[in-house]
Design a protein that fits this description.
Layout lengths: L8 H7 L2 E5 L4 H11 L6 E5 L5 E5 L7 E5 L6 H17 L4 E6 L18 H12 L3 E5 L14 E4 L2 H11 L4 E5 L5 H11 L3 E8 L6 E7 L6 E9 L3 H12 L4 E9 L5 H6 L5 E5 L13 E4 L2 H12 L16
Parallel strand pairs: 1-4, 4-5, 5-6, 6-7, 8-9, 8-11, 11-12, 12-13, 13-14
Antiparallel strand pairs: 2-3, 9-10
Length: about 325
């Protein structure tokens, strides 16, 4: 996918009304996006006072400008969400022309419906907060549930990291690949990847047994023996479900096991468990930062900065964001 033009006379004219800012969640990603667009990162101060209150001050003029705020909901999630809401309010009060929130990882995506008595729909609440703060548009990546788009009354552009993962696996030329959906919910994503790789599809059937992020793998639907398995999912949290899938595939004779996941949350001791497992490699994208203490030989990070930069370019210039994606035929 070609990147937008780098900064030169024509590029400066295109982007002269565009300003890109970052909170404290993932400044490296924001700077990478700016590098692809040939723009400097906007100047803003975001920090806490001694009383734990967050302070934001925009340090340049944004009146009538097209403002982009890059802030995934990385840990600590509550701090970074509140930072984002306060930043949006500051830009609104500074008379920004349009405020686009780039939240590559949307927190509380699993809380998208009332599936138990007396529980909230927090994903909807986050959408309400963003709109009340003053966001005019959301740009995100691989929502856990597609219906979250319907929680917003402003435009939502949902990109996908699947194409970046597919391109990576195409270059590896893995022998006899089989694409494995980590559960039934991931089957559509996995089916699209299988179609692109011209590989068969297998599905892990699981039953969630509690609210503590543990799940029980029930069976593997599909043939994986003597094949290279590629597990596809939207995110990995503690790694429990992923590693149960790895064990199930290993027991059923998979030759080698890889995993491709858009969002690498990797909470708790996930990285240690992954490093000690039969998993050959876990590939994630940089929708979330990967701290140095979580970097391991088995974990590879692919950047979505070129994709996000192109989407910002299209939004700013009034072009279609949907044109970024090549159509992927569904497997029969």
């Amino acid at each position: 996918m070609p990147a937008p033009p780098a900064s030169h006379a024509k590029g400066d004219a295109v982007y002269q009304e565009l300003s890109i800012f970052s909170g404290n969640a993932h400044e490296a990603l924001a700077r990478a996006i700016c590098d692809h667009l040939g723009r400097p990162l906007g100047r803003v101060a975001v920090y806490k006072f001694s009383n734990d209150n967050i302070f934001v001050q925009i340090q340049e003029n944004v009146r009538e400008r097209d403002v982009v705020v890059v802030q995934p909901a990385a840990a600590p999630v509550s701090d970074h969400l509140l930072e984002l809401f306060i930043m949006i309010d500051a830009f609104k009060r500074a008379s920004a022309g349009r405020i686009t929130v780039v939240m590559p990882y949307y927190a509380y995506g699993r809380s998208d419906k009332k599936d138990q008595p007396r529980v909230p729909i927090t994903a909807r609440l986050i959408a309400n907060f963003l709109e009340v703060a003053g966001a005019d548009r959301l740009l995100t990546v691989d929502l856990h549930a597609g219906q979250i788009q319907g929680f917003f009354n402003v435009p939502v552009d949902e990109l996908t990291g699947l194409y970046t993962l597919v391109d990576y696996y195409e270059r590896l030329h893995l022998p006899d690949p089989v694409v494995v959906a980590s559960d039934l919910g991931a089957s559509k994503r996995a089916r699209n990847v299988a179609a692109r790789l011209d590989a068969p599809l297998a599905v892990m059937e699981k039953r969630r047994v509690s609210n503590d992020e543990n799940a029980e793998i029930m069976t593997v639907i599909g043939e994986v023996k003597d094949r290279t398995a590629i597990i596809i999912d939207d995110e990995v949290l503690t790694g429990g479900t992923l590693l149960q899938a790895v064990c199930a595939l290993h027991e059923r004779g998979a030759r080698a096991i890889y995993a491709g996941v858009t969002h690498g949350v990797l909470s708790g001791n996930a990285v240690e468990r992954i490093q000690a497992s039969p998993l050959q490699e876990l590939v994630i994208t940089d929708t979330l930062p990967l701290p140095e203490e979580k970097q391991r030989e088995k974990i590879k990070v692919l950047s979505l900065a070129p994709l996000l930069a192109r989407a910002i370019h299209n939004i700013h210039t009034g072009q279609s964001v949907g044109d970024l994606f090549k159509p992927v035929p569904l497997a029969p």
